[in-house]
Amino acid sequence: MAETTKLSVEKALNKLREADIRKSKATQHEEQIDALDEETKRLRAQRLRLEAHQRRSTKRD
After folding, report:
1. How confident is the prediction along the chain (61 residues), in pLDDT tens digits per residue?
2. Is residue 54 within 8 Å of 46, Cβ to Cβ?
3. How far is Cα 46 from Cα 52, in angstroms, rounded to an integer?
4. Which of 5, 7, 28, 57 has the fewest CB atoms found within 10 Å of its own CB?
5. b/e 22-44 (16+ beta carbons within 10 angstroms → b)
6. What is the pTM of this model?
């Protein structure tokens, strides 16, 4: 029969918590990236509106 190694309850819980922490950090990074992507889209749209407004103002003069 194959020999299995036994972990203490404390070690088993620590391993599970470590996995959760890694997932949490990855999730946090993904959320930060998503927020930055949204901000980038917003700023690009704003820049395009400003440039279009400037072009219209220049043509009127």
Report:
1. 567 777 788 888 888 888 888 888 889 899 999 999 999 999 999 999 999 999 988 877 6
2. no
3. 10
4. 5
5. eeeeeeeeeeeeeeeeeeeeeee
6. 0.58
